[in-house]
Amino acid sequence: MNKVLGNKKSIAVFVLPAFIIYAVFVLIPIGYNVLISFFQTDLMSPSKFVGLKNYENLFHDKTFIGAMKNNILMVIGSLIAHLPLALLFGNILFQKIKGSHFFQTVFFLPSVICGVAVGLTWTFVYNSEFGLLNKLLELIGLGNLQQVWLADKNLALLCIIVVVMWQFVGYHMIIQLAAMRNIPESYYEAARIDGASKWVQFKAITFPLIKPILKVDAVLIITGSLKYYDLVAVMTGGGPNHATELMSTYMFYQGFRTLKYGYSAGIGVILLIMCICSVLLSNFIFRTETIEY
Amino acid sequence: MKKRLLATLLVMVVTATVILTGCGNGGTDSSKSSSDTLTVMCVGTEADTYLGSYKQIAEEFSKENEFGVEVKIDFYENEQYKTKLTTLMASNAVPDVFFTWELSYLQPFVEGGKVADMTPYLEEDTEWRDQFSDGTLELLAYDGKNYGIPTQKSLCVMFYNKKIFADNGLSVPTTYKEFLQVCKTLKENGITPMTMCGTDAWIPAQFVQQIAGGMAGDQLFNDICEGKEQWNNETHVKAAEEVKKMADAGYFQDGYIGMGPEEARDLIMNGTAAMYFMGAWEADNIQNSDLGEDAGAFVLPAYDEQYNNISVGSVDTSFCVSENSKNKDAAVAFIKYWSSLEKEEMLLYDVGRIPADNFELDESKLTPLMTEILNISNSQVGLTPWWDRQFGAGEGVEFNNTCVSILGGEDASTAFDALQQFAEDNANR
User: Which UniProt keywords apply (chain B) (predicted)?
Assistant: First the structure.
């Protein structure tokens, strides 16, 4: 078998099917998307070449700028919940406390539920008339804090970000916990003999050793929240008056509702560039050599 | 070595054949059936009372038609339908007959050459052409050619609860002042005057549009369409402020801004709210609810009396034939069948859908609510189509969003200035 795999041609044969599928469904569409972003087109009537005009218009489009800001808020919110907070939870469960496996499952549970179901559930929680949140506020005597959560343009996005934080904190916790469990126990034993406190153990052993995983995780978090779509589409549909619009929902709106596919492709290209830049940035921040135990 | 390579290749070929033939079977099946199946795509959900009647029309046509085609009708929820149709349009896979909205919604598809020209069929059968009310076919005509056939008409009316009105000693208002007085009295008596949905932007927007129509008539509408008037004209600002004033006075239910359309509708149906401003298509749902015989309808009196009886309304449930259809004759016959007197009467008497035709109707078969609505419909001197049908997803939807953001607390003139700016920017996107 080694002989077969040593031959470059046979490697190509094995890789080819996957590559063809990848090319047909990912590479070619990306190329086509970049191409039509230079046109004014509804994909039916003849297209008109407009050069970079779509991009120029995008940066004068208040809704698009708003959507971009919302995306950045989403990235910040997710980073807060999914790095420090997940790390904290992960580290607590790592201490082999009683029932840690139970809590691990509980924290992970929301991320296996599909986004649409999560969105609908939380829409009910936030409902202004019979929602859980408003009823709870009333019960504890904070009735004056009741809000029409998802219909208030200043609050709606925050409400959604909270749900995103809640939904994925367990997922990232599991990734980080798995990395922690990979660290040989002997390191901690040695540290304990030397009298290192829990904090010092975390700072000097756990954190540096899981840094490569944190890098991967950060990339997942950032790209995930840049191209986020489902919760917003289900909970507010980008409303009220585009207040919760993200780049991906705005792209859908411009493409499938107003039939400005060229303009919408332009949004896609900017999203792609932002994703690539953020990956490069997080690679730079978390740069580290590979670790072998 | 070479043998092994050969073996792997062989495995791959076998796998590929299995997969590809799997796809192939599906392909031949659909192409075989497409010759004697007429595919129809329509908007509707199981919650709509008219769905059964629509299916019945399709079934009966399948049995009776001379083309030997069987109708396969699919229903989709409104937003899903829009996404599905645009996708199918771009990939040339539109069904033979499809539901459409009028005006700007259909226009790009017509310009893209995806919709069959219906003019020859209408000219061939002038009796069919002449049955439609004045101006209804024009809403689906582009460059003087007809591309769609309207089967229904719809307009916005104010539904009201007769029992609540009687209990509070109120009568149907005939002037705008009286209308505000009715709201005030109801509010003082602890009853929610109107129910409103704030999450679907077109619902508050049609109310603003109705009031604006009552302030400046349909001239305003026509001027905006022709580009003679701007979106941030003072009538729009004034009308939106008027609705905002009603909201601030508590004439809508508490928390309306976060309420969905079904929740809002429930409030009129269960007798909590006294009035509900909505398209006449809700008539059947309302008369089948707990409200029953207590349901009534009136036209909102105009702010300026000289513009009374100008309402938001248009044609409804229009159908087009796809340019790619192999069964164009059968497709046209199906639409003709749907818009025949017999079927239109069935839709009107059973599920309260107003025909787009000038048929002589048997009023004794109408429910009291439908009689009132038909009277309103007949007494209108002008109908202005919903902005989001006239201008589609661009300015139309932004008009709706603007109205919601004003109700959410934004200053009306700032919001309409932003809409005007959007309209100018949107022109060259």
Answer: Signal
